[in-house]
Amino acid sequence: MNWSGVGNWFKSQVTLNNLFRLFLGQLVSFVLALMSFTSSLIASLGVDAPITQTSFTYFTLAVVYGSILLRRGQKLRIPWYWYLALGFVDVQGNYLVNKAYQFSSITSVTLLDCWTIVWAIILTYIFIGTRYSLWQLCGAALCVLGLGLVVLSDAGVGGGGGSKPLLGDALVIAGTLFFSMSNVGEEFCVKKKDRVEVVSMIGLFGMLLSGVELSIFELKSLESVTWSTDIILAFAGYTLASFLFYTITPFVLKLSGATMFNLSLLTSDMWAVVVRILFYRQQVDWLYFIAFGLVVIGLVIYSTTEKDVVPEDGGHNVEYQVLNAENVAS
Known about the structure:
Elements: H1 3-13, H2 16-44, H3 50-72, H4 80-100, H5 106-112, H6 116-128, H7 134-157, H8 165-192, H9 195-217, H10 219-223, H11 229-255, H12 257-278, H13 286-304
């Protein structure tokens, strides 16, 4: 073995910049795992208020980043109605995924979050004109196969956790559809416009839309909640984790792109398994490990062949060629 060649490669690849990007990727992955854990904890404490828990997040985003935007005194670079649409799909995605914790296990929800990549491929193909390579499609197919094993386990073959695991799985898959729309729009806005403006407007419109939906659908659930220190701390933990997620994600996307971001988020599934075993004292079925392995292999194949084929229309959608296909919760 040519050790000098290996050493030269190591020196060229392991730089402070690469280590910093790796650190940010793992940080956002750990924060995503904290979001999953606190949301699952809120559900286990008997609180069914998915809109309420995300309302605090949108409020903090609007206050912190909105204050920075107002201090700058600049006009919006993107029309407000686009931010309204972006906030709407983001709110629905958060609601459906957080609602799923009422019926399914944390491992199922975090693994099925990977379904976002499937929706992103479909949406970018239809509406943007992005063309994907055969290897990318093969990687996505492996992901779908792994996610199918999760559903199979939750159907009773392997004894998945949760009161109504299939309903929880369906909610997650529906939520990832909204997340994929939010992620595709958010990444384009962040890369082409102002990060502070994008995050603050998502917070503002997310807060307004959450307030409307909360007053219609969730007031009775809130009235039945017996607030305790544990519940308040769980809400605070979720708000802090999700605020950090919305804050760090744009940096990872700008510095690393979709490849490292997608690969980094895979470790959040591993954290979810650890949480389920250590905190909830639940056994994890062997199908989960096979499913996770297939998802990892599929996403590695997809991410390492990430360069999309330019459409035959002359490439007027070139700015969309590198899209984030695996963003969660946001």
